[in-house]
Design goal:
Blueprint: E1 2-4, E2 8-14, E3 17-22, H1 34-48, E4 55-60, H2 74-77, H3 82-100, E5 106-110, E6 113-115, H4 117-124, E7 127-131, E8 135-137, H5 151-159, H6 161-170, H7 176-182, E9 187-189, H8 194-206, H9 212-220, H10 227-245, H11 250-262, H12 267-282, H13 285-309, E10 317-320, H14 324-335, E11 340-343, H15 347-366, H16 372-380, E12 382-385, E13 396-399, H17 405-416, E14 424-427, H18 434-437, E15 447-452, E16 461-466, H19 472-484, E17 488-493, H20 500-516, H21 521-531, H22 537-544, H23 546-559, H24 561-564, H25 571-577, E18 590-594, E19 600-604, H26 607-616, H27 626-646, H28 653-664, H29 673-680, H30 682-692, H31 703-711
Helix pairs in contact: 1-3, 3-12, 5-6, 6-10, 6-11, 10-11, 11-12, 13-19, 13-28, 14-15, 15-16, 20-27, 21-27, 23-25, 27-30
């Protein structure tokens, strides 16, 4: 037989052996989209009619096998009514089942990534041979979903319930050697041996040397677990997951439930339960949010790729200032194999910067994620120096000195004397106007902002700030460098606070207003952590530093006096004036310690009660609901985010959402500030905002949001 489609090609390569090759045209990777699924169904039907069929070899013409389903089609697909969606999933499952039931042995040659549906098609085959460069897994849980093409049914019958629960509920990619050890693949070979080894295994199965029929029966029969074993496996997993997810991510628990419910069933009944579980999750706000997060991440990567095409790569970098931030930047660059000079004015500071980089690397070694040899190699890529001469060969220089405009200007003057004419100079400032800092520079077009977030090695976001005179070449090189560091760059136009801090401080203002009204800060923290924030606002202020927040708040007050004025002292001002700077001097809302394992602990500082009474008087506890706390915290952030779009500070709602998730830890399962607003309903939120306008102009609904309400629009249309 022969089939030549847009996504699939089939041909008879030997007597009775058909090669099915996935090769989606005009795409860099294979994925299960509508075209692929339609052709897959057609090919399986043709194979079922082939009289001389003896065996099936399944492979890929791309570098990866199949990366999974086409996520861009998901959100529209999920708009179907629940029962229709369930039936659609069952129809897709049937294709995999029909292939499994062709009555012939089949072997999948896994040459690269086989994820999600890509891994599930391999599970439907009799045997799997993986290249040493392959990776397999079921990442659907990271999209708020569960495997829908047989992953929850076949995998536990192949590798056992405990292993399958860990694979599916965590969603991690597995190396071929780990997959072989678990029994998920049957052999691992070098890439150049993959096809030959797969054909050899297929011929052994055809000739009866390998019992492929028992494999099929095993995958289609009830799971071999007695009642006690099932109880231990599933209930232990359920308890562990519930503790980890805090009820905020339904997909991992749904995976446990589906596997448990289908354990005693044969495959078609088990697949029905899987389809129902998938469809129910597809209807959740968490799935919509996490899919939106995935698409947003793809958008950032696409934009970075576009910038990289027009940018000269950074082959050597430099950082000015060897503090915590400078040391973090130096580590990240060295870790990504881009040599970097670290310049400071004192040897003690250089020691601090090297110590910061070394300690991050040592933690990787201690956790078994890096060999000591690699640590030493990485450190050699950092050149500490007291001389500006170390900057001469740098393609890009990151300034990370003290947050004082006069100091920065002096550093820029001295830096421009030695760096190459085409080198980019970028400031890591978190508050000072990039356009203002560019004044007086010899080459202002080669200057921009490059705002990292602390800790540098953990926080994915880098804000690349375009000053008025920044050239596109400058922005492109900075974005490319950020992407090469493994970061997610978001390009924003210059304004006070840029993007993230500009929308963070209205959130802090909401917190300050609640404190002044007499709401206990611990209660606010608990409510906002339950909302999904990794830290409540009081805890976050302690970590950021009250002095830092006070300074940044002053910059924003000057920039937006109509709504962020600091003429009236708030809790941040009072704490700053009383020398309470948070964690850095252990005088904040909380007393901060560590447990025996080194994990941070906090307890209420008893001195705060007297300070609050001194500042705001003795207050009766106000009658405020948790929902009102959420509204008073989140609505100022929403409105300021909308203003950033109105002011063209950032191009799209998706970029705002991603910036807040990657830069602040906005709850991923809510998808960002605009995805959350869509889910809550813009009309409801606009009405709620009106209630609080008398408290602050920060709550005033924007013209953008009011216009969207009148037109019935949302920030993220279906399919967007």
């Amino acid at each position: 037989m022969e089939f030549n489609g847009e996504a699939l090609q089939c041909r008879m390569i030997e007597d009775g052996v058909v090669e099915m090759t996935f090769d989606l045209q005009n795409e860099s990777v294979n994925k299960f989209n509508r075209v692929t699924m339609e052709e897959y169904r057609e090919v399986v039907s043709l194979l079922g009619k082939e009289p001389n069929l003896k065996g099936l070899l399944i492979n890929s013409a791309k570098e990866a096998f199949i990366v999974g389903a086409d996520i861009t089609e998901f959100l529209g697909f999920f708009q179907m009514p629940l029962d229709e969606l369930t039936e659609q999933i069952k129809l897709q499952q049937q294709i995999f089942l029909d292939m499994e039931n062709l009555g012939i042995p089949s072997v999948c040659a896994i040459n690269g990534y086989a994820l999600g549906g890509g891994f599930e098609i391999t599970l439907a085959a009799s045997f799997r041979v993986a290249s040493t460069k392959a990776k397999v897994g079921l990442p659907e849980v990271k999209l708020g979903l569960l495997p829908g093409f047989g992953g929850t049914t076949r995998l536990p019958r192949l590798i056992g319930a405990d292993n399958a629960l860990e694979w599916a509920a965590a969603g991690d990619e597995k190396k071929p050697e780990d997959a072989l050890k678990a029994g998920a693949v049957d052999a691992v070979v070098e890439p150049d041996q993959l096809k030959e080894a797969s054909l050899k295994m297929l011929k052994k199965a055809i000739e009866g040397e390998l019992d492929w029929q028992s494999r099929v029966k095993r995958k289609q029969a009830p799971l071999k677990l007695n009642e006690n074993e099932a109880m231990m496996s599933f209930e232990t997993a359920r308890a562990f997951i519930a503790q980890k997810t805090k009820g905020q991510y339904p997909a991992p628990l749904a995976i446990v439930g589906v596997m448990q419910a289908s354990a005693g069933l044969t495959i078609r009944d088990a697949l029905d339960i899987e389809a129902e579980g998938f469809a129910e999750l597809a209807k959740t706000s968490e799935a919509r949010a996490l899919i939106s997060l995935f698409l947003g991440d793809q958008l950032l990567k696409k934009k970075a790729k576009t910038y990289r095409k027009s940018a000269e790569p950074v082959k050597k970098a430099a950082v000015l200032g060897a503090g915590i931030m400078g040391g973090g930047v130096a580590y990240q660059s060295a870790y990504k194999k881009i040599p970097i000079a670290m310049k400071d004015i004192s040897s003690s500071q250089l020691d601090l910067g090297m110590s910061e980089a070394s300690s991050i690397l040592q933690r990787r070694v201690d956790r078994g994620r890096m060999e000591s040899r690699k640590m030493a190699e990485t450190l050699t890529r950092i050149t500490p120096s007291l001389s500006y001469d170390s900057l001469k060969e740098a393609d890009l220089v990151v300034e990370a000195v003290v947050e004082l405009e006069t100091v920065k200007r002096q550093v820029y003057q001295e830096t421009e004397e030695v760096i190459a004419e085409d080198a980019v100079l970028a400031s890591n400032t978190s508050t000072i106007s990039i356009t203002k800092l560019a004044e007086g520079l010899k080459n202002p077009e080669r200057f921009c902002g490059m705002h990292f977030f602390n800790p540098v090695h953990r926080m994915p976001l880098v804000e690349v700030i375009r000053a008025r005179q920044s050239s596109e070449e400058t922005i492109a090189r900075t974005v490319a460098y950020a992407a090469d560091l493994g970061k997610s760059p978001v390009v924003v136009n210059d304004c006070p606070g840029f993007l993230v801090n500009r929308v963070l401080f209205p959130y802090f203002a909401g917190f300050a207003g609640l404190i002044e009204a007499g709401v206990d800060f611990e209660r606010i923290d608990k409510v906002m952590q339950k909302f999904g924030w990794p830290m409540g606002p009081a805890w976050l202020l302690d970590v950021v530093g009250i002095d830092t927040s006070h300074h940044a708040g002053g910059v924003l007050a000057e920039g937006y006096p109509d709504r962020m004025s600091n003429e009236k002292a708030n809790i941040i001002t009072h704490m700053f004036e009383n020398g309470r700077f948070g964690k850095k001097n252990d005088k904040g809302f909380y007393i901060h310690t560590t447990d025996k394992k080194g994990k941070p602990r906090k307890e209420r500082d008893p001195e705060m009660d007297s300070l609050l009474e001194q500042c705001f008087g003795q207050k009766e506890k106000p009658q405020v609901t948790d929902q009102e706390i959420i509204e008073r915290m989140m609505l100022p952030m929403l409105m300021e985010s909308s203003r950033c779009l109105e002011d063209e500070i950032v191009e799209s709602p998706a970029e705002v959402d991603m910036a807040l998730i990657f830069g602040l830890g906005f709850p991923p399962f809510r998808g960002g500030i605009f995805r959350w607003a869509d889910e809550e309903g813009l009309e409801r939120l606009a009405t709620a905002s009106e209630k609080y306008v008398e408290l602050s102009q920060l709550y005033k609904p924007t013209e953008q949001i009011l216009g969207m309400v009148s037109k019935g629009e949302v920030f993220h249309p279906i399919g967007g």
